[in-house]
Amino acid sequence: MSTIQVTQSSMPDFQEYIREIEDLWESHWLTNMGIKHKKLESLLIKYLQTPNITLFTNGHLALESAIVALGLTGEIITTPFTFASTTHAIVRNALTPVFCDINPHTYTIDEEKIESLITERTSAILPVHVYGNICNVDAIDAIAQEYKLKVIYDAAHAFGVTVNGQGIATFGDASIFSFHATKVFNTIEGGAVTYLNSDLARTLNNLKNFGITGPESVESVGGNAKMNEFQAAMGICNLRHVDFEIEKRKAIAQRYVMRLDGINGLKLSRQPEIKSNYAYLPVVFDGYKMNRDQVYEALKKEDIFARKYFYPLINDFLCYRDKFDSQDTPVAKYISERILTLPLYANLSLDDVDRICDIILGK
Ligand SMILES: *Cc1c(COP(=O)(O)O)cnc(C)c1O
Hints:
The chain has helices at 14-21, 24-27, 35-47, 59-69, 84-91, 137-147, 200-208, 229-260, 292-301, 330-336, 350-361, and strands at 52-56, 75-78, 96-99, 122-126, 150-154, 162-163, 166-167, 174-178, 191-195, 212-214, 217-218, 266-268, 274-275, 281-285, 339-342. By secondary structure, it is of the alpha/beta class. The chain folds into 2 domains: 14-236, Aspartate Aminotransferase, domain 2 (3-Layer(aba) Sandwich); 242-361, Aspartate Aminotransferase, domain 1 (Alpha-Beta Complex), CATH 3.90.1150.10. The protein has a 7-stranded mixed β-sheet, sandwiched between helices. Strands 7-6-13 form a 3-stranded antiparallel β-sheet, with no helix packed on it. A 3-stranded antiparallel β-sheet has the order 12-14-15, with helices on one face. A hairpin with a 2-residue loop joins strand 6 (162-163) and strand 7. The chain is globular and about 70 Å long. The chain starts with 13 loop residues before the first helix and ends with a helix. Pyridoxal-5'-phosphate binds at residues 58-60, 82-83, 85-86, 128, 154, 156-157, 178, 180, 191. Belongs to the DegT/DnrJ/EryC1 family. It comes from Desulfosporosinus acididurans. Its EC number is 2.6.1.33. It is an enzyme of class 2 (transferase).
């Protein structure tokens, strides 16, 4: 039987992609905000229901740039239960992350613990819609209003998620998305910032293109983080199929829920109030007959590679553990030691889901 990884990148039909890139051989315009880039931007503005979007070559540089564009300073309150990128983006901007604990059911930032972490140096909150579970956006908004803080959501996992029909990109001052190969929607590598204030557009464009505003004009210091035409073309193709892919993910997720929900010692996370994108299938093993690492090994023996997202916790990383203490975020620590993300992607067969569940259930 073939190897099963935790995810498999979505790809359009080969001919569909070839058709999409064909005219690049006529224009010879391969990057620098060409027609594919412009087309993908306008398609995503509609799909994500956002007033403004700026595309980037990856999600990480989108986040680093959003932090600069919003003029953040000092301390930023964030979560340690996320991918390395979230914290690295803060630190690489010479700012200080302040880790807030997480909600034990949704694994997103615990909004009730934010206020006690605010100091006169705090400039923003950077929560993560982890696994596509959405944060308590209303409570976070209220805190931000009261203390005059900015909010950037790391929405890397939340492409296409809606709450009462409202797109996830419409919350906070800005959100960042990742279109990495492993995400629900991909442009091979890619990312975007979505934002409410259109004044940010100029700054974000400068940050991704050396501050160049005209053939003889460089108005600010910027780097290079442009999405190229081949990436954008991949996005145009993948966007045509993303709703269908999410439907397929849903059927797979429902099979997992059918087999695993309600079993003693297993915990699945669900947010019935949102329209999910079924990006991940995290399971917490707490008091189950096998612990998380035993389940991981049992699957691995059958060439099935689940992932310990998110373990280790960011405040336990080699590069951070001298400065932070993961005991300060006990819920995140507890979950991180017990959680396993099971394989989930559009082309995973229900038979394979059953095989994975049989191994977990010891059948
Ligand atoms: C993937 C990811 C990123 C970074 O995105 P890239 O496109 O890989 O640079 C940031 N935050 C989270 C939570 C992610 O999962």
